[in-house]
Amino acid sequence: MTDRILVLLVDDDPDLRAVVASFLREERDRIAVETAPGAAEGLDVLAERDVECVVSDYEMPGKDGLAFLAEVRERDPDLPFILFTGGGSEAVASEAISAGVTDYIRKSGDTEQCERLADRIVEAVEQRRAEREAEQAVGQFRAVAKGASDAILSVDTDGVIRFANAAVEPMFGYEPADLEGEALTTLIPERHRDDHLDAVDRYLADGERSVDWSDVRFNALHRDGHEVPVSISYGEFTADDERRFVGVVRDDSERERHRAFIEHAGDVVTVLSSDWRFRYLSPSCESVIGYAPSDLLGERALEYIHPEDRAAVSEALGALEGDGDPPTAEYRFRTTDGGYRWLESVGSDRIETDGIEGYVVTTRDISERKERERTLASLREWTRELNYTRTTDEAAELAVEAVDDLIDAGLSGIHLLSEDGESLQPAALGDSVPMLFEEQPSYGREAPARSRAALAWDAFRGEGSVVIDELSSSDRLDEPSPAESLVLRPIGDHGLFVVSSPDPHEFTDTDVLVAEILTDHLEAALDRIERESRVERLHGATRTLVRAESREAIAEQAVAAATDVLEFSIVTVRLYDEAAGGLVPVAVSDPATEVLPERETFTPDGGSLNWAAFEAGELRKFDDIRTTDALDVDTPLRSLLIVPIGEFGTISIGETEPGMLGSVDEYLAGILATAAETAFQAEARTRRLADRTAELERQNDRLEEFAGVVSHDLRNPLEVARGRTELAREECDSDHLAAVERAHDRMTALIDDLLTLAREGDPVTDAEPVDLGRVVGSCWRTVDTRDATLRSEAEGIILADEGRLRQLLENLIRNSVEHGSTSSRAEPDDSVEHGGKDVTVTVGTLSDGFYVADDGPGIDPDRREEVFDAGYSTSQSGTGFGLRIVEQVADAHGWSVRAVESEEGGARFEITGVESPE
């Protein structure tokens, strides 16, 4: 393979493509660069050229770098692919690493990053070449071990070849028949023949072997005259009472080539015996696991494998002769220093060659991959714990512990912005900081240029990470520092994460990525902690807000909560006023009155941002109102947040600096607006209730006045009429007087029922335990029951106002006795006893109440709702108020009453919702 490296550079910026390509060619003479403006063109180049490495931007028109990577991986899963980009994010980097990117390098304006790119290209390509060479060597070795066929020759004591197998033809150029009957010396170069014949004669004479018959090596003679290096294993046997010798001949030229491949491969090629002993190790053993091959020969491999991994390795590699894919095992192998290194082994078939017998296993070092996997798994655990922290100090301490564990950065710390915003103060420091710093480092805002504090503030104000590999040689710092490697990452607007080490070039790109991901999770945790703290304080303020008794008081409390608890400065609460035709300012914070002109009413046609948010019912946020057509665009107001308070109005929150209101502010302002809306709703309900209460009181006054009129002004004339009737009866006897007396009785009944209706509607507030059966019996004795029969099945204690309960029962019993059911089928001239004189009235108990039923004519189903209307009656003598009074008493208790058909076909009145004492 040539030393030249062809690189494909894909970037949509033509100037940047040219600069990077030129630099790569100048940096490394062996690098040749092919460029493409996008993923599609890049794929065309890959189809036409033998590219050994792809360098791609992330943000490109059409397919981005990750989509391009996916298509490249479909074509060639192992082709080195480096994402070289100025865009993207930690999430993109994580996704790229998961997708199998070879490396992720950020663009910058200095040459160091381009030098790093060139180095990584060469490293990646050389590693790929070495892996391919190793794979080829192993493949060739397997082919020889599995498919090579040895030449087998049988020779008699005279040195004549008696048998040759088919393998002699590819090895020596003779067909088997051509060699059978010929002397073995046919295959021996002339210079070796005499030595061979002498050795055979000595053996036949005294049985003494002059060489090791298991491995005799020399150059054999091919039919065309060239010599072939071979190794022969001899054996002796008897056939037909004749001594014979058999030789198994192997062509050593192929073996020598494979040995060269194996000995120069980056992976370790080993041969293991069936009892797990090392029979062979390639020279790369020393560079991979620290042992010379001679140190391990004869040793049991399992003894060097971590005890926790031995069972898995035995299971995976214990059946090397099985069918299917080659078995693979990952395990920890003990190194010369007593530690362990992660290895991956792939097993193949059995071999027997060159005095080595066993199973071939190819092994590579996967420690870096395992460490990366461990780091990512540990990072997930640390970030999960950050999600459960409850205080700022707890989150900061946890983040410092995490960065020390993940990238061994004990010289690190979290520095948070002070309350006055003038310094970055240490919140948590690594274990090494006190040993290397005389006092805890803090960084003031007004620090001299090129000082540690100035460097920290520059990073805090920036958007990305500041990475310095060798601080002592950096032109960004004049002040001495114990740190050499440095990563500075802003934690949003909370502060700065300082990750450092006293050694230069300590942090890899992966380390920087881990620090950035950890910082982002810390920022989210601090945001959450701050939000929860402010929400807790806000809840305390909203309790005061909802107790406010007027719209103006609620608005004032909302402004107070926004300024004192949420620490907003410019706050205005506007409420919709129908009379004014818009949003009227009701409460304003002091800074708002100083910064903004006198507030006016915002109307639908005024073009205000406030009205637009109110009308849409949506929160509106503006990082800088000077980019809008806001009415306050000429004022010092810059940041603006408008939150609708439902149908009541808006809360406006502003700051004099742009971009000061974030997602947390939106969240908290939304909570405040919801609390204010709840308070306004409660105030509106209270106001409506007060109005209704006042109206009810006025109605009760009128009703009481009416009751007084009925009681006094009607009863008095009625009593006079009764007296005159009695006097008239003494003077004369007339049937008309009896009719007048009945009219007087009816008028008396009407007055009594009207007074009951007027005075029985108030809710029951003094309910007490009452024996239902006792009250039923008492009421039956009170009512004129004529010849009716009572069947009382009522039992139990209920909660009721006994006097009003009597009123209800008496009316129901009277209704059943006098009407025999208030049947709408009765005619106006029917007698009073519509149900007959022998009606049976039953009072029984329900699961949540009781009932009164009779066996009279019943109630027409279409009229059952009407019987409770005031004035409804089917009797000429009835007032029509009896059942209305029953319903009124039930309502006063919170009960329900309904008319249904009784079991005997009469009327049944069920009262439910009745409670019993606990």
From TrEMBL:
The keyword Transferase applies. SUPFAM superfamilies: ATPase domain of HSP90 chaperone/DNA topoisomerase II/histidine kinase, CheY-like, GAF domain-like, Homodimeric domain of signal transducing histidine kinase, PYP-like sensor domain (PAS domain). GO terms for molecular function: phosphorelay sensor kinase activity. This is histidine kinase. It is an enzyme of class 2 (transferase). It comes from the Archaea. One of its GO terms (biological process) is regulation of DNA-templated transcription. The modification 4-aspartylphosphate is found at residue 57. Pfam families: GAF_2, HATPase_c, HisKA, PAS, PAS_3, Response_reg. Residues 327-378 form the PAC domain. Residues 137-207, 254-317 form the PAS domain. Residues 826-837 have a biased composition (Basic and acidic residues). Residues 818-837 are annotated as: Disordered. Residues 709-912 form the Histidine kinase domain. Keywords: Kinase, Phosphoprotein, Transferase, Two-component regulatory system. It catalyses: ATP + protein L-histidine = ADP + protein N-phospho-L-histidine. Residues 6-122 form the Response regulatory domain. Its EC number is 2.7.13.3.
